[in-house]
Amino acid sequence: MQLLGPNDTYLVQSDEDDTKFWGWKYAQGLGCTFEWKDKHDDSTKGIAAMTPEEWRERVKSGFQILPFHIQGRLDGHDGSLGGVKSNQGIPGSAEFDITIRPVAGWGSYPPLSSNRQSQEGKPEAHNNTTYDQFSTAGWLANFPVFEPHWQITMAHARATGSCTWNGTVYEFNDAPFYGEKNWGGAFPTKWYWSQCNSFDGYKDLAFTAGGGIRLLPFSFLPGKRTETLGLIGIHYNGVFYEIVPWLGSMEWEVSTWGEWKFRGRCTDNVGSQQKFEADIIVTTNDNVPGVLLRAPTKDKGMQYFCRDSGYGLVTLSLYELEWDPDTGDYIRSPNKAPIIDKAQSNLCTVEVGGGPWPKWKVESKMSPIIKKLIRLPYALRNRMRWKKIKKL
User: Fold this and answer.
1) pLDDT value, residue 214
2) In DSSP terms, which residues pair with 202 in a beta bridge?
3) Distance between CA atoms of residues 351 and 227, nearest Å
4) 304, 349 contact by CB (below 8 A)
5) Which of 92, 104, 252, 386 could bond to 156 as cystine, CB 3.0-4.6 Å?
6) CB atoms < 10 A from the CB of 205, how many?
7) What does the DSSP assignment read for 25-56?
8) What pLDDT is stored for residue 121 in this prediction?
């Protein structure tokens, strides 16, 4: 377990016995008990998920991630020094116990202003409203096709609970929360990531941007083995704005550290009926060097492989597009105000990983075959939508 905490501090605890780890196959549930409070209780062997109350009573150190509750007790050391095994760094401890109320997954959702959130934290459908959710990297990512795998499970949520970090207690109520899951053999050879759902004056706004070099299926065959892709997802007032290379264009300029620029547009009729463009700029101050964190690598296991910080300065704008016959292209609607006009925050998370890392300026390029396959569900949804309209 590795944790990035207040003021970009870093704690880690590990165990060589991987049989202590457990995970659910069809839902977001996983955990590991490093040490039980009662070391002589044989009945604890093989235990996986517990109720939050039972976990508090029985676990001395470890973690448990359930769909709407996360808990952890770390008895380790400073992860920025030495190794991950016991006594390989300056001692440190952390404890967290947090209840989560989802707001948005990765798709449409009931806006916060509608009060359509149940007491259990699940979105409630009213008037037969359905909220479509998507695979973050396209429907093919549901299967063992690409490497690695990535799914954003909660782009926007609220968290209530407490965190104790090296003796300092932090209590919070309805704080912004974000959740995702990575799995597979290793992280990409190079990637970037940024996320924020705590904007000044925009309570119901969240964005995630990510991109990297991923391994294509059948990469053992001659020909191209990787592709460089990026995406932006924006959740705002109940609407999901998906900017992906199979529905439009996505480009970025990311420096070695300190500046992330994203621009993308959705212009394909097979996707959203609305056409839009996003401009996002994130920077860090000179006194924010970021923290080197460990990530899984293909040949060497967990290594220092990425740099993160929770103190990025972000400015986000979102524009509606309209067709301009003079230029033969979509342009920002000149007679309409931006959908989002320079929303800002100083609590944006940022990350760069892998390498090498000179300034990285790229436009997403997809394999034509993969692009056609990923577009299929969008085309089918559009066809069904037109059938319903004709019936009316």
Assistant:
1) 83
2) 199
3) 20
4) no
5) 104
6) 22
7) SSSS-EEEEEEESSTT-GGGTT-----HHHHH
8) 47
**359 phi, psi to nearest 5 deg:** -60, 135
What does R_g of the chain's alpha carbons equal in angstroms? 22
β partners of residue 354:
190
Contact 194, 349 (CB under 8 A): yes
**Residue 302 or 349, more confident:** 349
Distances (CA, A) of 383 to 147, 240, 319, 337: 31, 20, 27, 31
Q: Residue 128 above 80 pLDDT? A: no
91, 77 contact by CB (below 8 A): yes
Which residue type sits at 38? D
Phi first, then psi, for residue 372 (nearest 5°) are: -65, -40
> Which pLDDT does position 273 carry in this prediction?
73
pTM of the predicted model as reported, rounded to 2 decimal places: 0.91
Q: How many CB atoms within 10 Å of residue 126?
A: 10
Strands 226-236 and 205-215: antiparallel
Token readout for 58 is 């029985």
Is the distance from CB of 277 to CB of 319 less than 8 angstroms?
Answer: yes
Read off the pLDDT of residues 230-278 as tens digits, 9 standing for 90 and up.
999 999 999 999 999 999 999 999 999 999 999 999 998 766 678 999 9
DSSP track, 288-307: ---EEEEEEETTTEEEEEEE
Largest CA distance in the chain: 79
Q: Kindly report the average pLDDT of the chain as a whole number.
A: 89
Q: What is the pLDDT of residue 119?
A: 46
d(CA 197, CA 176): 6
Per-residue tokens: 314: 């972000």
Mean pLDDT, residues 164-178 taken together = 97
Q: What is the pLDDT of residue 120?
A: 47
Residue 147: DSSP 8-state: B
CA 144 to chain centre: 19
Distance between CA 232 and CA 156 in Å, rounded? 14
Give the Cα separation of 291 and 78 in Å (integer). Answer: 12
CA distance 158 to 66: 15
Structure tokens at 283: 């920077």
